[in-house]
């Protein structure tokens, strides 16, 4: 069981890390966007909505992580769309569209109708399709972002000698960090390393200092350790042993050997096992107050273009044989929910 949690990166995957490092900032919120007080309030409101819509869906937290990535990238570069009612309505509409796109990337069986019904949302299907197209075009159809997940297999071998870490708990640290404003300023590679170092520091106190000989402390390490305690994330070693159990264990450390099969070097998020993402989103707690947005006329920053219109059939699909738009002309029909878009970087 433990062996399957991590895989040794292939040479091709190691070479891809360099490309990820060059491109990763393009998949973050625009630099210095969330220093504006109103922008911060918009994000807090979006985080509350994503958390709300995630309730009852604990089988795949990565859907909501992706949705928030799309929201950050869109709003920080294009602002809120015009003519969508109140600011709260506009943010909810964008959040819902980000979630539906992310769901289509992860679940081939996903349907917008079922999601709207399950969440008791009365948003016309055509508006959802228009919002999806607006977001997809604005993000240039780059819907498989470079995230901290891309770096985990690259960094993890340095932590094996300590005794190993549960992949699921590292995933949870990364996903829960998405709800915190401070981490929008950190690069995905920094978050990945911070999540591993934070877990090792908690699980193997006194031993994790040896990691400093290989990696300098990432800038957001202190915040990441605090996040683990704040969200009460249970840090486990390989095989499911907790930090408390680890302190009592005298089991010798082991290192997994062997060669992993060749895989694509691009992020293939549909291949992440859902059993490694089956935890609730805990971005908002009961002690967090509701976000009250200032009147729209008081907000700073620009507003984006009006959303496009599209032909939508009675069954919810767009008119025509395909509705792709990918630069690679893959005819993936992302908007129809048939499969994830293949345009990665």
From TrEMBL:
Domain of life: Eukaryota
Protein's recorded name: Uncharacterized protein
Native species: Bauhinia variegata
